[in-house]
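During the reporting period the student researcher (J.K.) took over the structure-prediction task from the postdoctoral fellow and processed the backlog of single-chain submissions. One of the processed entries is reproduced below for the supervisory committee.
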Amino acid sequence: MAIINDGFGSASKLVGTEQADLINGFDLNDVIEAAGGNDSIFAGDGNDTVAGGNGNDFIDGGVGNDNLSGNGDNDTINDFFGNNILQGFSGDDTLTAGAGNDVFIGGLGSDRMTGGGGADIFDFRLAFGGTDQDIVTDFVAGTDKITGLAFNNINIDFASVANDSLAATSSASIVYSRSTGSLFLNTNRSASGFGGFGKIATFQGNPNISGRDFIPLEL
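J.K. obtained the following structure tokens:
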């Protein structure tokens, strides 16, 4: 294992190796690039940018408004302080935040996302259904938002239905099943099935999601 430290708090960029690194960022606004290996990254205080690279990484953002990304494989990303961006990219990732207003981009794979307090945004721009289905553990309807799905700035083609069977024949392209907390992409509308997509996420606790909980994707 390679151990990489910010030393006396003087470094602003830390670069890992292809090994399983332990990287400590301490108190500056650090840029950390971990490269390969199963890394443990502690960004410390400051507004940090972390890229985990390949490998099953553990990333802790510390205090500050951070941008944390896991990249490949199955990553665990925690950031309990500040307003943060947590990105899993590929792999089955676990993304957990605290009381801030955070943005979650699970990416490919089956991800588990916990917003904590605050008004959080869950971005499903890379959600394609099938075997890749995300879990959102604590969505608060009316406070948190969903984005990344195809609709324009004015209208969302959304329906809330009683169960999954009704979702498969809904005429809407984005369908929420109240009985299971499941969100579907339904590209073939009222025809049977979901047109090659299907369930993209489960919202635990079956929150009362409506069209007002969706916002356009801002690139």
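The committee noted the following: The chain has a mean pLDDT of 90.
J.K. will present the remaining backlog at the next meeting.
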